[in-house]
Amino acid sequence: MTETDSNVYDVVVLGAGPVGENVADRTRAAGLSTAVVESELVGGECSYWACMPSKALLRPVIAQSDARHLPGLAEAVQGPLDTARVLARRNEVTKDWHDDGQVSWLDGIGADLYRGHGRLAGDRTVEVTGPDGTRKVLTARHAVAVCTGSRAVVPDLPGIDQVKPWTSREATSAQAAPGRLVVVGGGVVATEMATAWQALGSRVTLLVRGKGLLNRMEPFVGEMVAQSLTEAGADVRTGTAVTSVTREDGTVVVVTDQGERIEADEILFATGRAPRSDDIGLDTIGLEPGSWLETDDSLRVRDSEWLYAVGDINHRVLLTHQGKYQARIAGAAIAARAFGSAEPDTGAWGAHAATADHGAVPQVVFTDPEAAAVGLSLAEAEQAGHRVRAVDYDISWIAGAYLYGEDYRGQARMVVDLEREILLGVTFVGPGVSELIHSATVAVVGQVPISRLWHAVPSYPTISEVWLRLLETFRDS
Questions:
Q1: Which of 144, 155, 358, 396 is 20 to 30 Å from 431 at the Cα level?
Q2: Residues β-bridged to residue 362
Q3: What angle in degrees, to the nearest 10, is found between the helix axes of 18-29 and 320-339?
Q4: Are residues 346 and 396 in the same domain?
């Protein structure tokens, strides 16, 4: 029998990714003692296998593309990217998959870190099994926050284990570019990784089951990204599903429902996410192992007084920045309930309510061109029953866009609620548009009236002048 220790804290956090870190930061700032349990690296998926390494791979790709469209600079950057140096820089960004710096940060806020696998073991109790088999029992006076995130889903195809396919983890941490790469999927991971590896020397074939790419955004976004990938040399095939995949003498052989046979060196499945809740002891408190955890807007699990689920695990929005937003809300709500000085403000836009999860979520896709959106698309707004109008503008007509080069391609759309004359959603696609999205987020979250947006004057000559042109188009249509 291994040794068992017991420790009591105000709050126990399962998972030390960005979400868990932010819950711990907020509860510690409020004066609550906090323990954090992590089985892998402190900093989580985002720091080592998602946001940061993927953008480290993509930044040179986008910078080179921008340069190649600018006369005077284009001639100086005609050669291929230095793939080895790009990968080395990616390794620097991930600190070579060492988490010393983030461990120091946790120490700095006064949270106690427990390395090992954490499982719920009944009411307000977490059992941690360390790497050496030692068990520690942690008890939470006020709250346990589950911040274990999600994992990539690989389809259940015969022999898939022998193929050893890539998921997002392998795609962002690979130390060499495969000569031929098949990417299965049409969402953010698929399009970003297809963009990166095509530019870093792989011959990419992108297989998309649906009609187009990035189907949660406005249709013109996926169309423009697909066109750019094709021009870069990728083979983009829509309406195509994988029926079998094998590895023969080191070569991946993919067969599609069109009867096509495709050979590659590696295959990446970017086909969705599942909750990391299979083995965290949900059964000990009457919940289903492997399930998403439903919460209220304070991120407290339904029908529980002490269990919180924050970030991907609650399936509200699977984005790091939105998970960190939820963490700030959850930390404040936990503290308010712990001290009991006042009932938490869980009304719409209250201090303890994650209201922005409902229809005001921003996202950037770092493809070439970039895509950025916040709020509802036209189809989503119409489906929700709003009386709306889509207002479109070609960003290439903006003086600031012309400075990027004569062949700038981009599109903007705002979805206007005609009853209240506010914005329900905004979408941009084109070089440099990622820096536009926060202004759109402020307009959507703040429900700023169109009449007031006229007084938010964009600087000239910047791409942000598209705001003025959208307003003029709305006025004149």
A1: 358
A2: 374
A3: 30
A4: no
Between helix 219-231 and helix 188-199 the angle, nearest 10°, is 20
Give the range of the structural domain holding residue 418, as residue numbers without chain letter.
369-476
- Distance CA(436)–CA(466), nearest Å, equals 10
Q: Torsions phi, psi of 464, nearest 5?
A: -65, -10
What's the length of the chain? 477
Query: Which CATH number does the domain housing residue 465 bear?
Result: 3.30.390.30
The answer to whether residue 58 is domain-embedded is: no
- My answer on whether 384 and 417 are in the same domain is yes
Distance, CA of 325 to CA of 138 (rounded, Å): 26
Pairing of strands 235-237, 117-120: unpaired
| Same domain, residue pair 15 and 138 | yes
First vs last Cα of the chain: how many Å apart?
76
pLDDT tens digits for range 23-75: 999 999 999 999 999 999 999 999 999 999 999 999 999 999 999 999 999 99
Residue 78 domain-assigned (yes or no)? no
Q: Do 327 and 387 fall into the same domain?
A: no
Asked if the structure places residue 91 within a domain, the reply is no
For the cut 50, the answer to whether the pLDDT of residue 255 exceeds it is yes
Q: Is residue 364 part of a domain?
A: no
The verdict on 237 and 143 lying in the same domain is no
Q: How many domains does the chain have?
A: 3
The model's pLDDT over 414-431, given as tens digits with 9 standing for 90+, comes to: 999 999 999 999 999 999
**Pair (290, 420) in one structural domain:** no
Q: Model-level pTM?
A: 0.96
